[in-house]
Amino acid sequence: MKKEDILKKLRSSGLRPTKQRVEIAKFLFERDKTFHFTVESLENHLAKKTTCKFALATIYNTVHAFKKAGHLSEVDVRGKKTYFDTNITDHHHFYDNETSELIDIDASEVVIQKIPKAPNGKKIKNVEVFINLKN
Amino acid sequence: MKKEDILKKLRSSGLRPTKQRVEIAKFLFERDKTFHFTVESLENHLAKKTTCKFALATIYNTVHAFKKAGHLSEVDVRGKKTYFDTNITDHHHFYDNETSELIDIDASEVVIQKIPKAPNGKKIKNVEVFINLKN
DNA sequence: TTTTTACTTTAGAATTATTATAAACTAGAA
DNA sequence: TTCTAGTTTATAATAATTCTAAAGTAAAAA
Ligand SMILES: [Mn+2]
Ligand SMILES: [Mn+2]
Ligand SMILES: [Zn+2]
Ligand SMILES: [Zn+2]
């Protein structure tokens, strides 16, 4: 992902390219594999990787703007913190409760043979499969 | 569910049958269909149904004791509040984002044909299917 | 280039859900 | 009935997140 693409992500999220936002965008989007994170973990990573200072509110605001623009998704994990996901495709997860780690499962790796029909007046938006792991 | 069964639920959770606990247990377990709730919604229901007063801490403590004893389960729902479930069997859910309502899906109504194998050293504990609804 | 404007960062306050505390109360044993 | 361990409760504390408003900055206007 080039600098111009980073700027595109910011613009399409309605965000001016400030120092903080560019650092956050680079950290989140200049990678090959999926990154699952909480605001707290992102803050720690940013503190290590960059010299720039980040107010917590800036991280929250930026992450939410990316989510709203569709550049990040949210994953439901048991617990109090919100988890975000750089993988915005329709996909599933393994969840390791011991390590609180999420692992992506591509949609093609799960085939559902039978599923109930939606309640009256409703339609199915999407199906999420969550596989809990143990040792 | 008879009075004796309610007392059994309390005893097996290590709880003395106090006025508050009996009311909570009756409200949660004297029903046919599944009840999905947050501590806040349970508090509101109890306020309507009974004359007894409940400190929030008592509701939290009692619900957690029931969960620990296996009489309640927890469901992961997007959002900040913890959802509990009187259905303790292995089952799945529809989730209506408009109304924040959960609907049970019996395990037999979902058949999964293909699923990835667990990462090295790990085993699959259980598989949860979450079907998001739209209008 | 300067000036101006609107947007942004930030520290700290506020809010929300939950958990902890410790004093007053009570079920059940003795 | 008395005693004891367990319970309820109001309130304080904590944790995650959101809000606020003052000081700072990017980009448009002059
Ligand atoms: Mn969650
Ligand atoms: Mn949740
Ligand atoms: Zn993912
Ligand atoms: Zn359920």
Helix and strand topology:
The structure is a homodimer of 135-residue chains.
Chain A: H1 3-12, H2 19-29, E1 36-37, H3 39-49, H4 56-68, E2 73-75, E3 83-85, E4 91-96, E5 101-106, E6 111-114, E7 123-134
Parallel strand pairs in A: 4-7
Antiparallel strand pairs in A: 1-3, 2-3, 4-5
Bound molecules: manganese (II) ion (2 copies) and zinc ion (2 copies).
Chain A binds a DNA duplex (30 and 30 nucleotides) through helix 2 and helix 4.
Summarize the structure.
Helices cover 33% and strands 27% of the residues of chain A. With 135 residues, chain A is an alpha+beta fold. In chain A, a hairpin with a 7-residue loop joins β2 and β3 (83-85).
Helix content of chain A: 25-40%
Largest sheet of chain A: 3 strands, antiparallel
Radius of gyration of chain A, Cα only, in angstroms? 17 Å
Head-to-tail CA distance between termini of chain A: 37 Å
Strand content of chain A: 25-35%
Ligand inventory:
manganese (II) ion, zinc ion
Number of domains of chain A: 1
